[in-house]
UniProtKB/TrEMBL annotation:
Span of domain OmpA-like: 253-379
Keyword Transmembrane tagged: yes
Keywords carried by this UniProt record: Coiled coil, Membrane, Transmembrane, Transmembrane helix
Keyword Transmembrane: yes
Pfam family, one: OmpA
UniProt-recorded name of the protein: OmpA-like domain-containing protein
Length: 379
């Protein structure tokens, strides 16, 4: 039997080789199939990524264009605002000049009226004198007529008396003529004064109309300023509301953001807690973002108002609720300045227990009244 094995020609191992080669071929085909499928999936994924990238690039291009348009619009608005400010300054200067002119016209009118009254008094005196002279002339004329009848039979002495009386009558007539001339001159002066007074009153009315127009322009310019500030107040509200979303102890009351003091400070203290400092940092970030968008000539401030509850202070470093509320407001203001808010855009006040938002006297009401309020407004 051993001879038989040693004499084998090796054909018995061939089926094993064939099986191994078949298996290797099948594995190779499977691996190639896996690579092909993987490449197909990868190509599909890359194609989708390319589409997404293209869409993102389109969105970036659109956003860039929108940003460019907004920047251009902001530049245009800034230029228009500068022009309006220049017009406002010119209108204020013109208003001041017209006010001075109106004052001068009023003084002129008063002076003319005083002169008119003086001339009226002089005219009345002259008319009284003229009436008295006319009476004397009538009496003298009557005497002359009576004496003329007796002149033919009179002697030389009587004729001399009649001649003297005639001379006196002539002098009286001359005085009357002079008085009439003075009255005529006074009437001419009165007419001239009346004409000047009418002209001054007309100029005064014209100046008043111009002042009214300037006042209207000033009011419109102020209204535009207020509208611009209200626009930025809306932006401030949106930015701060977004950054403080989800905070339970922060609420909006009218145009103010109200922080309960318990969120920022320990009880009866004015040292801000770490959590409170984080809240104030969010407020500072929103204010800094808005401040970069407001033109420099729009006058605005962030008002920081501190409030306390109605419970009296019984101990500690603070003498009253005013001291406590003021110290807390100042602590918040210092933190805002440290977080980058400009000092010239901040004002603060301590209100004590005034203006409570909760009228009761429960612990929950007291907690609501212990608060810090932020408000974007004009100085």
């Amino acid at each position: 039997m051993s001879r038989k094995r040693s004499g084998s020609n090796g054909l018995e191992a061939w089926p094993g080789y064939v099986d191994a080669l078949s298996t290797l071929l099948m594995v190779t085909i499977f691996v190639l199939l896996v690579f092909v499928l993987a490449e197909a999936f990868l190509s599909s994924a890359l194609s989708g990524s390319d589409n997404t990238i293209a869409q993102l690039r389109d969105q970036i291009a659109q956003l860039t264009q929108s940003l460019s348009m907004e920047t251009s619009k902001d530049t245009t608005l800034t230029q228009e605002l500068s022009a309006l400010n220049a017009q406002l300054a010119s209108a204020q200067a013109a208003n001041a000049g017209l006010s001075q002119q109106v004052s001068a016209d009023a003084a002129t009118i008063t002076n003319l009226q005083s002169q008119g009254k003086d001339l009226q008094a002089q005219l009345s005196d002259a008319q009284t004198q003229a009436a008295a002279s006319a009476g004397r002339i009538s009496a003298l004329q009557a005497q002359m007529d009576a004496q003329a009848q007796a002149q033919a039979n009179a002697g030389p002495g009587l004729r001399e008396q009649l001649t003297a009386q005639t001379k006196i009558s002539s002098d009286a007539l001359a005085q009357v003529a002079l008085l009439n001339q003075q009255i005529a001159a006074m009437r001419a002066q009165l007419a001239a004064l009346a004409q000047a007074l009418d002209a001054a009153q007309a100029a005064d009315a014209k100046d008043n109309v111009q002042i009214a127009d300037l006042g209207k322009q000033l009011n419109e310019a102020l209204a535009r300023k207020v509208e611009e500030l209200q626009q930025y107040q809306s932006v401030f509200f949106r930015a701060l509301s977004e950054s403080l979303k989800g905070e339970k102890n922060i609420k909006v009351v009218g145009d103010r953001f109200v922080f309960e003091s318990d969120v920022l400070f320990p009880v009866d203290e004015a040292t801000i807690t770490p959590a409170g400092a984080a809240e104030i940092a969010q407020v500072a970030a929103a204010v800094t973002e808005i401040a970069s968008k407001i033109p420099p000539d729009v006058n605005w401030v962030l008002s920081v108002d501190g409030y306390a509850d109605a419970q009296p202070i019984t101990g500690g470093p603070f003498k009253s609720n005013f001291d406590l509320s003021s110290a807390r407001a100042l602590a918040v203001l210092d933190l805002l300045i440290a977080d980058g808010v400009p000092e010239n855009r901040l004002v603060t006040s301590g209100m004590g227990a005034n203006n409570p938002i909760a009228p009761g006297n429960t612990p929950a009401d007291y907690a609501q009244n212990r608060r810090i309020e932020f408000r974007l407004t004009t100085p």
